[in-house]
Amino acid sequence: MTALNGKVAIVTGASSGIGRATAKLFAQEGAKVVVVARRRPELDALVAEIGEEGGEAFAVAGDVRQEASAQAAVAAAIARFGGLDIAFNNAGATGEAAPISQMSLAAWQDTLDTNLTSGFLGAKHQIPAMIDRGGGSIIFTSTFVGYTAGMPGMAAYAASKAGLIGLTQVLAAEFGAKGIRANAILPGGTDTPASITNAPGATPDVLAFVEGLHALKRMAKPEEIARSVLHLASDASSFVTGTAFLVDGGVSICRT
Question: Does residue 157 carry a catalytic annotation?
C-alpha cells in the first residue's frame, strides 16, 4: 500500500519547483491532488502528466493572496474527490530584496500577503474540511532565513516566513484535539526556477557560493524536499505536530 492511498491533498505553488515535485509524489503515493497556482498552462500540463502516470489531479488556477482561491481549492477537493486530508501551502515569493530603510510599504505588504496571509487563508478553509474527515495534516513552506540565519535585504521575506512558523504552532495547539497536525518545512537552497542560482546572469560563482553555504556542499533537488513533505503528510509522522522541520542540507549549522 502506498503512503497516501485514499487521501485527498491540496498543493499550492504547484506549477514548478517544490510544489510541482510534491504534487507528483503525492499522486504517486496514492493521493488525489488539487493543484493550485496562477499559471493555468503549467497546471494543465502537470495534471496531464500525473494522469499519464496513473494518478488523479485537478487544477485550480488562482492567486493565493485572494480568499476566493483558497475557497475554490477546498471546494474542488470536496466536489471532485470527496473531501480533504492534506494541504501543502507552499506558494510563496522572495519579494523585493532591499535594506529596510529603502523598502516600500507596498513591497513589504505584497511579500507578507504572498507568503503569510496566503497560509492563513488556506488554513482557514482547509482545516474545517479536514475536521469533517476526522483529521488531517497541514504543512507550510517556511525557510531557515529569519529562523537560524539573518540575511541582509531579506526583511520582508524573513518576517513572512517566520510568521508561518508561529501560525503552525498555534494551529497545532488549537486543532490537535480534533486530529489536525500542523508542521512547517524549512528548506535550504533548492534548485528551482526561482532560485538565485538560475536567475538571469547568474554565474557559476553564484552557484558555488550557495552550495558552499551548506554542510553537504550542494543544493537540494525539489524531489528531496518533496520527500520531507510526504513524511509530514503521511502516517509516518503521526505524532509530529507544531514543528519547524529543517530540510536544509546543514546550512543552519555550517560554518565551513
Answer: yes
Which residues are CB-neighbours of 65 under 8 A, at least 6 positions away? 113, 114, 117, 118, 121
Q: Is residue 213 part of a domain?
A: no
Choose the catalytic residue: 157, 182, 189, 243: 157
Say whether pTM exceeds 0.70.
yes
CB atoms within 10 A of CB 164: 26
- 39 within some domain: yes
CATH number at residue 180: 3.40.50.720
- Greatest extent of the chain over all pairs of C-alpha atoms, in Å: 54
Helix (H) or strand (E) holding 183: strand 180-187
Residue 167: inside a domain, yes or no? yes
Residue numbers of the domain that contains 156: 8-190+219-247
Per-residue pLDDT of the chain (256 residues; tens, 9 = 90+): 699 999 999 999 999 999 999 999 999 999 999 999 999 999 999 999 999 999 999 999 999 999 999 999 999 999 999 999 999 999 999 999 999 999 999 999 999 999 999 999 999 999 999 999 999 999 999 999 999 999 999 999 999 999 999 999 999 999 999 999 999 999 999 998 878 788 787 888 889 999 999 999 999 999 999 999 999 999 999 999 999 999 999 999 999 9
129: CB partners within 8 A, 6+ apart: 74, 77, 78, 83, 84, 136
Q: 172: left (phi > 0), else alpha (psi -120 to 50), else beta? A: alpha
Number of domains in the chain: 1
C-alpha cell at 168: 503552525
